[in-house]
Every structure is written in structure tokens, then in C-alpha cells.
Design a protein that fits this description.
single chain; flat
């Protein structure tokens, strides 16, 4: 998208190409309305996807997941309608809590970037490789061990760099 924005608007392109389209004369009004509508739809579709793991965990903890037996005694004999209503209330509540945090917590994007940097490298790369090395240490060859350790070190370095980069003041990183 950056290349398209540069080709369309030159050096005067704004941070988001959609902003450049909205402030530029000559584009049909329908395109501006469609862009604003599509930008508004994106969070509406992303929030349920992002909250799915939290909601699934809450359903399991409260015994509302259909695949699990209700552990709280009060939920064991609950009717399907009541159980569905409670699940809807939980989903709406969790979504509202996340929206409130996003709106009222200053620098929420920094917190999310920090969590992404630290957690993604740890959960997706470092820990699986470390567990693999621990479980299969007798069965894998030295080349595979070297590759795994190299990947662990590279992921750790990238996680530290990402964490430090997020914590630096915006002026030092070139961000506005």
C-alpha cells in the first residue's frame, strides 16, 4: 500500500492512503463515503475475532461451553435459553471492557505492541523450540540442535529489540 500511496500522491501522501483520498479534491463523494464505511466496519469485524480466545476461556471456566460439563453447581440444570443468554451477556461484557480499555488507557497501542513483541516471540518461537529440545534431546542430531538454538537466540534478540523499540520515545524512532 505504501508504494501505491507514493505513486498516487507523491511525497504529500499522508500516513494512511485513505486519509489522502479523503482530503484530495476530485474523487467522487461515493468513494469517500465507502472508505469511511469500510474503515468503520474493520473494528466491528476484528474485535470479535480478537476476543474469541478470552470468551472461549470464560465459557469454559463458567461451564457454559457445550463441549464441557458445567462445573459450577448452579449451571448444571440451566435451560438452553438461559445458558445462551448468559453466554451473550459474557460476550458483550468482555467486548465492552476491551473497548473501554482501548479508549481510556493512554498509549494502549504501546501496551499492545509491547505484549506482541514479548509474547509472540516467546509463545510462537522460543518456547516451542525449547520444549522440543527438552523432549527430543536424545533423538535429534547436532545440526538440528544448532539450528534450533540459533532460532531461539535470533527470536530472543528480535524480542528484546522489539521491546526496546516500543519503549523508546517516539522522537528517537522517527515516529510522529
Amino acid at each position: 500500500m505504501a508504494a501505491v500511496g507514493l505513486l498516487m500522491f507523491g511525497n504529500s501522501v499522508l500516513d494512511e492512503i485513505t486519509s489522502s483520498i479523503l482530503v484530495t479534491e476530485g474523487y467522487p463523494r461515493a468513494i469517500s463515503v465507502a472508505i469511511v464505511a469500510f474503515i468503520a466496519i474493520i473494528p466491528i469485524t476484528k474485535i470479535p475475532l480478537n476476543t474469541r480466545p478470552i470468551i472461549s476461556s470464560a465459557d469454559k471456566l463458567l461451564g457454559l461451553d457445550a463441549r464441557h460439563v458445567a462445573s459450577p453447581p448452579g449451571l448444571a440444570g440451566m435451560a438452553g435459553y438461559s445458558r445462551g443468554l448468559l453466554r451473550a451477556v459474557i460476550r458483550i461484557t468482555i467486548t465492552i471492557i476491551i473497548l473501554i480499555i482501548a479508549v481510556f488507557v493512554p498509549s494502549f497501542d504501546t501496551v499492545m505492541s509491547l505484549m506482541g513483541s514479548v509474547l509472540c516471540f516467546s509463545i510462537c518461537i522460543i518456547l516451542p523450540l525449547a520444549f522440543y529440545l527438552k523432549i527430543f534431546r536424545e533423538e535429534i542430531g547436532w545440526k538440528e540442535k544448532v539450528l534450533d538454538w540459533t532460532l531461539i537466540v535470533v527470536a530472543a534478540v528480535l524480542g528484546v529489540v522489539g521491546t526496546v523499540w516500543v519503549c523508546l520515545p517516539a522522537g528517537m524512532t522517527g515516529a510522529r
